[in-house]
Fold:
Amino acid sequence: MFRSFTTFKLIRYAVAYVFITSGFMKLLNTDLANHFIGLGLPYPYILLNTVILLEIVCGILIMLNKSVRNAVIPLIAIMIAAIILTKVPTIHTSILQFAFNARLDIVMLILLIVLYNRNPN
Structure:
């Protein structure tokens, strides 16, 4: 039996893939974890572990199409924080440099908003 891959399913799978792999990379890659810790946030280790947990768990929920609307909310917050903390500081270089550095974060943020608006639950 052939299962149809709708555009919405592909968006869900792509978003889930990005966040699940991002969470595991923060967990397994010390350079990535150290970069996060070096952002100057309060309680960096607690925040790092919270972000890792949210990215993996919410990514799995999105992949399984369970509580998608609730799962995207913390991921939207993570993406907004990522843009503000790591991309906005490059805006002083040039708007084009900022746009280039933030391109993937902005695309993920848009896809998360699409998932939020598409799911009634």
The helical segments are 7-28, 30-37, 44-63, 68-87, 95-118. Residues 7-118 form one domain.
